Amino acid sequence: MLQTRLILTLLALSGAALAQGAGPAIRVPGGSYSQITPQALQAQLRGKDFILINVHVPYEGELLDTDLFVPFDQVQGSARLPRAKTTKLVIYCRSGRMSALAARALVRQGYTNVRELRGGMDAWRAAGFGLKVAAARSAAPAGGRP
After folding, report:
1. CATH number reported for the structural domain that contains residue 51 in this entry
2. Structural domain of 46
3. What is the pTM of this model?
């Protein structure tokens, strides 16, 4: 009976963690970052308290509330990133490959609150959420906005 109750409690807790959409910490040199599901990100956009960064190149679209555009290979040392290393950052690209590289670079720079959209814009679309695509756009300008 006690064992059954323990198993049910663990299942309930793991379900709550999955509902929040945050995966386990991904350890990398310098610290760790986590992934967030499209569903969890959509819910968190309602009370947005983070900077949303598109790191995909070339430009293939963006989530509606995107704040910055920093190519994944220019994240290291970018002056466009916030100075405060505890700033909440959520990064994404098209499929997740570039954002995983960017997440590693951000952690190496000392950022401590980095989340990556699991599966990128592909997963975002597959979850039924829309993207914005700027007309006649080929690359992010120096200012970071399309």
Report:
1. 3.40.250.10
2. 21-126
3. 0.79
Whether 40 maps to a domain, the answer reads yes
C-alpha distance from residue 66 to each of 16, 62, 93, 95 (Å): 27, 7, 11, 16
Reduced DSSP (H G I as helix, E B as strand, rest coil) percent helix, strand, coil of the chain, to 5: 35, 20, 50
Asked if residue 13 belongs to a domain, the reply is no
- Cβ(113)–Cβ(34) under 8 Å? no
Local structure of residue 121 (DSSP, 8 states): H
Dmax (CA) of the chain: 64
pLDDT tens readout for residues 80-118: 999 999 999 999 999 999 999 999 999 999 999 999 999
Find out whether the peptide bond into 82 is cis, omega within 30 degrees of 0. no
